[in-house]
Design brief:
This protein is mainly α. The protein has a domain of 83 residues: 434 Repressor (Amino-terminal Domain). Helices cover 57% and strands 0% of the residues. It has seven helices and no strands. The longest helix has 18 residues. The chain is elongated. It starts with a helix and ends in a 14-residue tail after the last helix. The N terminus is likely disordered. InterPro entries: Cro/C1-type_HTH, Lambda_DNA-bd_dom_sf. Pfam families: HTH_3 (PF01381). GO terms for molecular function: DNA binding.
Length: 122
């Protein structure tokens, strides 16, 4: 089995993380876009027209070649997926570590029930 076909098999479940090379991320995103386009019933020509992009631009994006952010925005709008950017980069992002620290502060600062250690028996 060739390396190219190995990637095709793995790409269905690929998780993008900090160690994933940029070219692989672009290729994966292009594949996901093509899959979404097909699921929505668009041909490349139809989605290109709907988004205002050229067919060649859409083909390059789906092939994982570099593209500009405004091209992605046009495609996301045409596919009615623009609101997914809120998950990608939320307005009020707080890291998991900061959330855990804030949670710990709230527990320590919680009002006392009036009971003390050893007062279980009343």
């Amino acid at each position: 089995m060739s390396a190219k076909s190995d990637f095709a098999i793995k790409s269905d479940r690929m998780k993008i993380d900090i160690l994933t090379p940029d070219k692989v991320i672009l290729r994966e995103l292009g594949e996901r876009l093509a899959k979404l386009r097909k699921q929505r019933g668009y041909s490349q020509e139809e989605l290109a027209e709907e988004s205002g992009l050229g067919v060649a631009t859409l083909r390059r994006i789906e092939a994982g070649e570099g593209s500009q952010m405004d091209s992605w925005l046009k495609l996301l709008k045409a596919l009615q997926m623009i609101s997914s950017l809120d998950q990608f980069l939320p307005e009020n992002f707080e890291s998991p570590m900061a959330q855990a620290k804030a949670s710990g502060r709230r527990k320590r600062n919680a009002p006392s029930s009036g009971k003390r250690w050893g007062d279980e028996n009343g």
